User: What shape does this take?
Amino acid sequence: MDLTIIIPTLNEEKNIGKLVSCISKDYPELQIIVCDDGSTDKTQEIVRNTGVSLIDRTNEKVHGLTASVLDGINNSKTKFSIVMDGDLQHPPTIIEKIYSKLIDGNDIVVGVRKKVMGRWPLNRKLVSHTATLLAKIRLFMAGNYVKDPMSGFFGCRTNLVKKIIPKARFELEGYKILFDILKYCPMKTDYVDYVFGTRKGGSSKLGNKQILCFLRSLVR
Ligand SMILES: Nc1nc2c(ncn2[C@@H]2O[C@H](COP(=O)(O)OP(=O)(O)OP(=O)(O)O)[C@@H](O)[C@H]2O)c(=O)[nH]1
Ligand SMILES: [Mg+2]
Assistant: This one.
């Protein structure tokens, strides 16, 4: 596989070891880059012990999921890259399906959340649905209809994203890197459905800052 998996992490000691070993077992031929933003738990130690690449961003000026993923993509040496969360909410079984659609000639392959497991509180549901709707309208106005543009699970042609990094407007501290990429210009896009699992351990880092970043990215 000409593929790198990019995993942003912040305090994922309960999940990252399991995720990396699961991916390595199922797909021994691909690369994995974990982009860690200065975890204070054992995340970095666990990643080092697995032997996969670790980008230690502890001393970077700007921290954030988007900034971390961009670092990962910049360091990816394979033709394709797939971005996924480090908390086991994104099933590794879908990697193969995303990869095969990338090989078919798509620029972007979006993992579409067909079902969300677990019970989300009403306010989270409301924020998520409203944000997705606003993102779709924003992209549609730019001539680009995309299903689930807020997904954190997607594949891309590495060079295409590398090329737009200096030009596109990324909210570096935000969560919605896919939306920032899609805003740049319409791209050949395909989809793979998946079930968004429950976080297996640790806690969510989603907060008001990320919501603010998203609102800003809507108008940029
Ligand atoms: N490098 C880096 N990774 C981050 C940052 N914030 C979150 N992450 C990672 O990005 C992924 C997604 O973050 P989550 O907190 O799980 O966000 P979420 O999936 O929307 O929220 P939950 O459903 O509650 O888990 C996880 O692997 C996090 O560890 C950050 O600032 N920097
Ligand atoms: Mg999560």
